[in-house]
Input
Amino acid sequence: MKSIFAPLSLFLIASLFISCEYFSTTTHTPKQIKQASEWSEKDQLPGFESCQDAPEEDRFLCFKNTISSAVYDALNEETLIANQILDEEIVLIIAIDKEGVISLKEIDNGSTVLDALPELSAVIETAIDGLPSAIPATKTNVEVAVDTEIKLPIRITASVL
Output
């Protein structure tokens, strides 16, 4: 009986020492994590399926132009009447989540414009909501889709009737 347990116990002890490397953990400093999380030129920006035929360097421009065109088209379809003369730039902060859903997060620098054109926010939000799903941005070093935001400046001009 003793002869069976001796090789078995020796095998178990040896396997514990050999397998310890599988239980080791690697720790990363906050600086290393931040550096790996920063956006690099190799990472993939968000885009639309319709822009994938464009050369790589023009895909994000196509993406921004598609959003701009949707907003401008929506604004041209509406008859918005301002209660004061306007020549202001607003900045649309647009969120694209990991699933490619696009939404209007905020209209920055727009307090004067939104006071003069209260319907403007709803028109822009409807235009953004009507966009097709996007291809989300991807951190290529870990191949993970990430949430992103883009800022889209728009100049609003209006005269009073």
The first strand starts at residue 86 and ends at 96. Strands lie at 86-96, 102-108, 137-139, 144-146, 148-158.
